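Hey team,

Filing this mostly as a record. A colleague (T.K.) asked me to run one chain through the structure pipeline before their review meeting, and I want the input and output archived in the tracker in case anyone asks later how it was produced. No errors, nothing strange. Just documentation.

Input sequence:
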Amino acid sequence: MAEPLVYILVLNYRAWRDTLLCLKALERLEYPNYRLLVLDNASDNDAVAQLRAAYPGLEIVELKRNLGFAGGNNVGLRQALAEGADYVWLLNPDTIPEPEALSAMVGLAEQDPRIGAVGSVLLDMDNPQQVQAWGGGEVVLPWGLVRLLTHPRQAARLSYISGASLLVRRRALEQVGLLDEGFFMYGEDCDYGLRLRKAGFLLAVAPQARVRHKGGTSWHGSLQADENFAAYNVRLFRKHAPWPRLAVAGYTLFWLAEYSLRGRFDKVGALWRGLRRGWQLPL
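Output structure:
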């Protein structure tokens, strides 16, 4: 029997150099049955021209405006489902997957139909011996805790698969739906993992699927990133936590302590702005 059809979605925004490195790595994939779709989130530079020059036959969907991570990927998810994909792999453009990564993820998913999503082992781009995340992270809703997991012994605490490398089963997409576009940046992968688990699906990590990840391509070092991170985590707690105010209070105390100990009072300001925005975001 032929291997399941996998759609690979790479959402580009400005950072065409990273995207080209990712596409070069995808050429070495061992998995034989996949289709690659690049979505450009209305980049305001020459990203599309650069990508087309390097890969003239590349399928690129040019979005008319920046739809964020969820909205941009949802365009690709709809196309993938319409064209018969069995799985969809959301892959950040600032990643370099090892050749066996996709085969390992699909192989694990095929072992158990209850698995709704599979993640990979995310490694630091510049120091591949350093694990960024073992698939994804944990969300402790009552206390407002969101953190990455970095070791296989923590797998039982997995609440979500990181959107940097997220393989989703077709049936899960059909049953749970697409990404929540109310999360423009950050929180969408946490939300989706919680929704998958609530629907009865399992989350899994393929240890042989190793993906190097840079992180922070578009917003690295930006106070706007800190503000967005806070705002969309507040929205996450409002949507899922049993006691949203308690969760937000716990989240706030943690980051106030973290930033204060580092002497980053500029980040404290961004935190407060994000908290205010988060309560105003529609659910």
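Quick notes for T.K.: The first strand starts at residue 6 and ends at 12. The chain has a mean pLDDT of 95.
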